[in-house]
Automatic annotation (TrEMBL):
GO terms for cellular component: Golgi membrane. It is a lipid-anchor. Its main location: Golgi. GO terms for molecular function: G protein activity; GTP binding; metal ion binding. Pfam families: Ras (PF00071). This is Ras-related protein Rab-36. It catalyses: GTP + H2O = GDP + phosphate + H(+). One of its GO terms (biological process) is protein transport.
Length: 252
């Protein structure tokens, strides 16, 4: 249940049990990962323990999902947020968003996940929502190599609206259920090279079967949460924003 108080979103219900992250989530492959450690940063761990983190209030990170049309952005988000998969294609018109609440190391944290349209004619609307992203997820279809080549351009456009170095970047290959394991390995090798160039973390998933989808979003939540917490503890401006106002949330 969410309510508005002083223009901020407040949640009165507890975080669902399947959104509780106690162990630091691991990467997909060490060849293209943003961090190799498998534990919470020491300062974050102690802040969470002594509840200092709670004083900073509930935090929210903005995540934007970009990539060519038909690569599976909406299905990826729907598999995680609603545990559903739709085999029929319905193009995203402009943007859409989901709010996902987590509990990390005992502290509540929220991701605002923006699904953007891949179709050229909607790009103009969608790109106005790139600003303020802490996480950029660039998506391609493992079964269509051209969509991998276009991820650089999508990233460049998303970064144009954000401070350089202020975003975590992920490169996600979808539809792995459509490939044999040999085909998958071949495409993943190419993707890992591009991920390295983009300084992105690579994941290979299937929204149809759900393979790696939950693990991937847990990793996103953990990295964004830890970064925000470190920033808050250092007293600098956190990369994350406070929950946005209802007018912004309903703008889509
Ligand atoms: N087999 C399989 N099909 C998928 C998977 N993910 C998406 N699809 C299918 O791919 C098509 C496009 O998926 P969407 O999620 O709508 O694609 P999108 O990237 O959001 O497209 P736009 O909204 O136009 O940008 C749909 O028919 C989906 O059912 C997957 O993991 N496996």
């Amino acid at each position: 249940m969410q309510q508005m108080e002083n223009g901020k979103l407040q949640f009165s219900t507890p975080v669902s049990r399947d959104r509780v992250i106690s162990k630091f989530p691991k990467w997909y492959t060490p060849q293209a990962c943003l961090q190799m450690k498998d534990h919470w940063h020491g300062r974050v761990r102690s802040a969470c323990k002594d509840r200092a983190a709670w004083n900073a209030g509930m935090k929210m990170s903005k995540v934007v999902v970009v990539g060519d049309l038909y690569v599976g952005k909406t299905c990826l988000i729907n598999r995680f947020c609603k545990d559903m998969f739709d085999r029929d294609y319905k193009a995203t018109i402009g943007v859409d968003f989901e709010i996902e609440r987590f509990e990390l190391s005992g502290v509540p944290y929220t991701l605002q996940i923006w699904d953007t349209a891949g179709q050229e004619k909607f790009k103009c609307i969608a790109s106005t929502y790139y600003r303020g992203a802490q996480v950029i997820i660039t998506v391609f279809d493992l079964a269509d190599i051209r969509t991998l080549e276009h991820t650089r351009q999508w990233l460049e456009e998303a970064l144009r609206e954000n401070d350089p170095g202020s975003c975590f970047v992920f490169l996600i290959g979808t539809k792995r259920d459509l490939l044999s394991s040999a085909e998958c390995q071949r495409t993943e090798r190419d993707a890992i090279k591009i991920a390295a160039e983009m300084q992105a973390e690579f994941w290979s998933v299937s929204s149809k079967t759900g393979e790696n989808v939950r693990e991937f979003f847990f990793r996103v939540a953990a990295l964004a949460f830890e970064e925000s917490m470190l920033r808050a503890l250092e007293g600098g401006a956190p990369l994350t924003s406070e929950p946005e106002t209802s007018s912004e949330l309903t703008a889509a």
